[in-house]
Amino acid sequence: MKSATRKQIKGTPMNHPLESLEDLILKSLNPRAITGLPHPLSKFAANGAVKDGPYVDAIMEFIKDWTWEAPESVRQRAAVWFLFDSERAFFVACFEAGIDAEKLRSHLKSRRT
Questions:
Q1: What is the span of the domain harbouring residue 96?
Q2: Number of domains in the chain
Q3: Torsion over CA of 59, 65, 68 and 70, rounded to 10 degrees?
Q4: Left (φ > 0), alpha (ψ -120 to 50) or beta: where does 57 sit?
Q5: Sequence-distant (≥ 6) Cβ neighbours of residue 39 within 8 angstroms
Q6: What are phi and psi of 22, to 5 degrees?
Q7: pLDDT score for 82
Q8: Left if phi > 0, otherwise alpha if psi is -120 to 50, otherwise beta: which for 48?
Q9: How much is the pTM?
Q10: Which residues contact 41 (CB under 8 A, 6 or more apart)?
Q11: How far is Cα 18 from Cα 25, in angstroms, rounded to an integer?
Q12: What is the mean pLDDT of the chain?
């Protein structure tokens, strides 16, 4: 019985240094860090990774509004303008989020009915 207990103790996390509280808090605020899932827009990343923040959040919200809001609703029309018609806002948001705007817009247009 003592040898089983001893083996259990050797493998416990207590033998490893603890992460700082700040690191744990930052990880908990990023759901992808916890789940290990890639960002939904990662295949459109310009330099390998999407930058989490307000720009990518806004892009995701507009995509959601375009697909889920009632046709011709204010939110759906705003999303259509942003995603398909804006000449600057979409490109600035994509640049700040680390997304290839042309690639994303082309993909979205191919899904447009």
A1: 3-111
A2: 1
A3: -160
A4: alpha
A5: 32, 45, 49, 50, 52, 56
A6: -60, -45
A7: 98
A8: left
A9: 0.68
A10: 50, 56, 59, 60, 97, 99, 104
A11: 13
A12: 84
**Highest mean pLDDT out of 5-9, 24-28, 32-36, 37-41:** 37-41
Q: How far apart are CA 77 and CA 23, in angstroms?
A: 40
Q: In this structure, are residues 83 and 90 in contact, taking their beta carbons and an 8 Å threshold?
A: yes
| Encoded tokens for 11 | 């493998």
Residue that has been written with the tokens 């303008």 in this structure: 81
| Separation CA 33–CA 37 (nearest Å) | 8
| Nearest by Cα to 39 from 106, 102, 99 | 99
Q: What is the pLDDT of residues 78-111, one digit of tens each?
A: 999 999 999 999 999 999 999 999 999 999 999 9
**Pick the residue with more confidence: 4 or 74?**
74
